[in-house]
Specification:
Layout (H helix, E strand, L loop, with lengths): L66 E6 L4 E8 L16 E5 L11 E5 L3 E2 L3 E2 L13 E6 L4 E13 L5 H4 L7 E12 L4 E12 L2
Length: about 210
């Protein structure tokens, strides 16, 4: 991740750093595979005597409703959200190249989720573009409200419950990219000291928010 123009300690907490080098390192270890992928067929394909050879119809799970907007009043943030996956070349979370846009992990839960972690990541800053959408993410704390708008026009509200900082190599991906458990919103960006030798920030800042009452 690139150093911020102001060299501010735009920790991931501030947002993912420059251009997808500005990718959430936390995601560099590859999030879980796409949701909804049918399991490989097992056993014999032969039909029982007198039974139809056609397999039973399987109803595919409904596609999740993608977030299209993220609003955080405390940060005066009203950002566009694009659906992203994993960069095939680097294996990193493919954060949008524009620092003003944040990325929703499209293989995970959407705005309409009834379980699991809705993951959105963004840049902290960029040497070329300046402060990113998540430049001040580190300033959020318990109780702060967040609103996520879905592609269907729905608005889901959350309340911040935790702010955590991890060295990128130690962030518990299985926790933040889980598709089970209670519904929660997970926001990730870069943070900690900037390492000029690697062009990356050392840490990731993670904000967890629960559905508002």
């Amino acid at each position: 991740m690139s150093r911020s123009r102001a060299a501010a300690w735009a920790a991931v907490a501030a947002g993912i750093v420059t251009m997808l080098a500005a990718t959430v390192t936390a995601c560099a270890e590859q999030p879980p595979p796409p949701a909804g992928t049918p399991p490989a067929a097992t056993g014999s394909a032969a039909a029982a005597p007198g039974a139809s050879a056609a397999p039973p119809a399987v109803t595919a799970p409904a596609a999740p409703v993608p977030p299209t907007g993220l609003k955080i009043d405390r940060l005066k943030l009203d950002a566009k959200v694009d659906a992203v996956g994993v960069d095939e070349k680097t294996g990193d979370f493919a954060v949008p190249p524009s620092v003003d846009v944040v990325g929703w992990y499209k293989w995970g839960p959407g705005v309409d989720a009834t379980a699991g972690s809705i993951v959105i990541a963004g840049h902290v800053d960029s040497a070329q573009q300046g402060q990113g959408a998540f430049f001040h993410l580190r300033d959020l704390g318990p109780g702060d409200p967040i609103a996520v708008t879905g592609a269907d026009g729905s608005v889901r509200r959350f309340t911040v419950s935790a702010r955590e900082v991890y060295p990128k190599a130690k962030i518990p991906l299985e926790k933040y990219f889980a598709r089970d458990g209670g519904v929660r919103l997970t926001l990730i960006t870069c943070g900690g000291p900037f390492d000029a030798s690697t062009g990356h920030y050392r840490d990731n800042v993670v904000i967890t928010a629960q559905p508002a009452a």
